Every structure is written in C-alpha cells, then in structure tokens.
Amino acid sequence: MSAASRVNRGRAAAAENRAAILAAAREIFAEHGRTASMTLIAQTAGVGQGSLYRHFPTRGQLIHAVYESNIAELESLARQDDSTIDELLEALYRQLTDSAAFIAVFDSADGQSPHLTSIRGKLRKLLSDKLSDRSQRGRLRDEITTDDVYVALGMLAALLHQTPSSQRRGTARHAWGLLLRSLYR
Question: Residue 171 sits in which domain range?
Fold first, then answer.
C-alpha cells in the first residue's frame, strides 16, 4: 500500500503503523541488510518518516525490534507441546536464509550490546530446552549439545553473511544439508 493511499488516522493507527513498520523493516533488512534506508522502510510500510521515528527513534531500536519479533516467533513455536528441535532448527534456518539482518545475532564480532546478548541468551535457552527433553530432540544425534547446534547455526550465518543475496538461497540450502547430515542420525 502506498503512503498516498493511506488516510492519517492519528493515534488510533499507532499499533497498525508499528506492525506495518516492523513487517517492512523485516522485508527491507532481509534484502538490503541492516544499513538499508529508513526512508525506504517508511515508504514500504506506508507511513511517514515522523511515524517511523516516533515508534523507533533509532535504526538500532528498529533492528532490535525485528530481532525480538524473530525470537518471539521461535518462542511461540517452541511452546507448542508437540514441537521438536527439528521444527525449531527449520524455523531458524528460514530466518537466517530470509534475513541478512538476523545473521548478526550469531556474529560475535558484532559487539556485545546488551540487547544482542539478550537475544543470543534467549536463542540458546530455546535450543537448550528442546535438547534437554528426550521427547523433543527429534532425530538429533544423542551426543549433539546446545553449543554444537549454536556453532552450526553460526557457521551457516557466517557463510550467508559473505554470500551475495542473489546466491544466498542456493548456498543456504546446500550448507544446511551438509550441517543436517552432521547433526542427525
């Protein structure tokens, strides 16, 4: 929806605008990385620059909100009684493949911001909780630990970080297949 076709509903549209901004940011960051234009994000969301900056005063806050929504999606999946590590890993693979921005969660060189440290901690806890329950381990080999899975995902993230976006899906699929063969029986 273009900005011209939206009617300004003021504060009544705040939640809708925030959701539109997050969806646009996820899409734009996925394609262009974390340095993507904030103007492009606002245009894609169909909101004005003022609305974008009211919700997210800095690029960092917007990036962190996208990370949080990715983690919330994973947490929701993990809370399902019948979910296994297999589904969680598949969801993580999709997020890494679809979002160049989410790759930074695995990039230890990206600094130790308290927010990224928190996101990494939440992700490790999700993995650890699934791996500690025998019924949720899926086909994962018995000796595989949370650290092993995290390192494997970090390897995939590092590879995708260096891969041109036009080749990312094919490279991700190939690397993921290799990693799965090492993790699963």
Answer: 59-183
